[in-house]
Amino acid sequence: MCGQGDAPCFGETRIYCFLCPEFSQLTTQGVDGKEFPEPHLGRWYFIAGAAPTKEELATFDPVDNIVFNMASGSAPTQLQLRATIRTKNGLCVPRKWIYHLTEGSTDLRTEGRPDMKTKLFSSSCPGGIMLKESGQGYQRFLLYNRSPHPPEKCVEEFQSLTSCLDSKAFLLTPRNQEACALSSD
């Protein structure tokens, strides 16, 4: 019998149970500039997304690749993000926003988006990190890596974990085109 919060069970005559693999939530407690966010600053590549429905990933359908840069903000509780999105039709779309660290919590709040909450999680994949974004009407998991082409097993582990967490839709960015240059402003 599965029960007791173990995880999803499949099948009617034969029951398959498994525990969702654990993943560690990164903490922002004791933000001192060393423990967090220092290891997470710098360049990241968006690799894949997962969500309960396709609609929650629709914003990524036209994307070939995205490169991000995370930097310390003007205040100790801020992170500045810059991104450049390469669309499948070759256009480069710059974006930037500010995350506010929530003291004593693992939540990041996006400036100008009070409904959006982001949580950071570690990844078993070397150079990887996973985010859980939730807002009004959506929830999605996003996989990032320091390399634009991480080992295939990293993507497989992410897909397996998010499937276990009830994400039925999965999107892998093609990453067929060269990443756009990040602006320095």
From TrEMBL:
Alphabetized CDD domains for the sequence: lipocalin_ApoM (cd19450)
Keyword ATP-binding: no
Main location: secreted
Pfam family for this entry, one: ApoM
InterPro entries, alphabetized: ApoM, Calycin
Record-linked Gene3D superfamilies: 2.40.128.20
Domain of life: Eukaryota
Functional description taken from the UniProt entry: Probably involved in lipid transport. Can bind sphingosine-1-phosphate, myristic acid, palmitic acid and stearic acid, retinol, all-trans-retinoic acid and 9-cis-retinoic acid.
Family indicated by similarity: Belongs to the calycin superfamily. Lipocalin family. Highly divergent.
Quaternary structure annotation from Swiss-Prot or TrEMBL: Interacts with LRP2; LRP2 mediates APOM renal uptake and subsequent lysosomal degradation.
Name this protein carries in UniProt: Apolipoprotein M
Native source organism of the sequence: Felis catus
